[in-house]
Amino acid sequence: GERVGVLALQGDVREHVSTLEGLGADVVRVRRPEELATVEGLVIPGGESSVIDKLSRIFGVRDPIRAAIADGMPVLGTCAGLIMLADTITDAITGQQTFGGLDVVVRRNAFGRQVESFEASLAVPALGEPPVRATFIRGPVVETVGSDATALATLDDGRVVAVEQGNLIGISFHPEISGETRFHRRFLDRVAARRTATLTAAS
Ligand code: GLN
Q1: Domain ranges in the chain?
Q2: Which value does ipTM take for this structure?
Q3: What does the angle CA 180 – CA 184 – CA 188 come to, to the nearest 5 degrees?
Q4: Where in the sequence is the active site (predicted)?
């Protein structure tokens, strides 16, 4: 299987590890540059983006992740992970930075507080049928989709909650806690496709 990482600084790491392992991937918990260097793709979990940001700098993995994104490594970010992939946050706390890569503007905590968490049945044309059962937990919303990014899903009120750009996928909700595996599958397919392209280029 594909050898992929889950960024394991903070957040719901375990749920992503088990979803990926269920799909046959070989999963590494990534905290340090040495671990990042061994993987072909990375999942950034939900959690608290300002904490993930701070810890990524403390562990020295921020710049290597930015370099890997620039190099085309596939990355799937959910919730706080989407925030980490956004080029711009509207309401960053002081000093908060992102890895960037997605040409989007994201608003944090766009759906209110933890108690206002909700589930929605969400049509995601790129994934086909059935609709996704999406769990929102203090998730962000994509306020602006830049010209380099594409919306993958919108709520009934028109708010964008999933985007894609090249090998990057960012979603506002948590597929890993509702048994939804198609986003992870899409991510692993990107990893496999990039491996094939690399091997072809080398031969
Ligand atoms: N509100 C969190 C943040 O700003 C994201 C919540 C989540 O990942 N479930 O990072």
Answers
A1: 3-202
A2: 0.94
A3: 150
A4: 79 (nucleophile), 174 (charge relay system), 176 (charge relay system)
